[in-house]
């Protein structure tokens, strides 16, 4: 039995696995050392970021008052908590990452389709967040050594000046150094990085409240919605927040597999999502509201606020912490998913780390600073998230929890011969692919066609529900074949 680089021990299937489907990173794990705090810290890494900060503050400009926004946040994060438990517990029961779990619903080869959709989105996000993290390094460099660094901002290449390229390259390398020892190194990194951002946020909130003399209001929207518009904006805010977590909803099995039991997943998600998210949103809105009084405008970028303090120690410390936070969310939300997804393509040649390196290289090609600074491209990209990820979630979860009643034959997930349980038709499940295709087409039209803009916030939910509604009747006739999986998979549940 081999010891993985991340100190998780893999368990080879009882039957000889196909080398085209198996490596130690994709195999079920036996030593599951992620406790409640580790999952909680992982969510701190994901939520304590510039993107979530800005998103939470932006909800107050949808025509909702403070109470209404907090209702929307509370309702949506409870929904997210429930959905995330479904995904995480599927990973915890099987011990396998998302692309391997997807083999049970999409087929042993068909699973590469949802894996590559998720990986493609993660690659784009990985580049954008690497760029965002590099801006913190730029601020620090200009503050500490302006005579030497400012000349580096006068010339640009492919839309980014020399200092920007240096800082982007530094962020790119730092992230690879963090993950070079696998998931256990990531666990140790996030256990202290997430709380560090809380320290900066609380300090920033106290400073802004003092500067504004306590003149803080949770009603930031200049135009209050009423009647039908109020109801629509409230429901849209709930849907948008659920969609905001669409990427994690698909592949949270990657983390749930490392928990020793179901209770750990549920409790870690509870403290990390409802408790942590609502508190972080309150701090973000408090700081944003105070910025209106102090600076005359609503500033939703915490790094810009820190820069406006005009205190070198504060600027350097704040820039460092938010850079660390960006590294954390990028690794957790994007690197890990890509690492498993690309490894699933060619298990014999691509392990966890090599899969992540491939993603890191590909992330540079779209020139992410151009994407981030182009509001139109960002709008279409974010809109497309729900359209593509909702249907995947709908098929995955309806197949695992309804059709298969929470059980799969784990050994069969690594079997590539035509007699295998999950081989379906030449390794692909046409029912799952058909349901995803129909739901994605509908959701994409709603998300991206301006004429259906009123439905755009609900594209993830519509895509997920429609995929499940189409898939379940198609698969129900073969449910009797799945009933035997409970017995086949039961001995593997304690891995």
From TrEMBL:
Record localization: Membrane
Organism: Mycolicibacterium porcinum
Keyword Secreted: no
Keyword annotations from UniProtKB, A to Z: Membrane, Transmembrane, Transmembrane helix
Protein name: NCS1 family nucleobase:cation symporter-1
Gene3D superfamilies linked to this entry: Hydantoin permease (1.10.4160.10)
Membrane-crossing residue ranges in chain numbering: 50-83, 123-145, 157-179, 191-210, 230-252, 273-295, 315-340, 352-372, 378-397, 432-452, 458-476
Family statement drawn from the similarity comment of this UniProt entry: Belongs to the purine-cytosine permease (2.A.39) family.
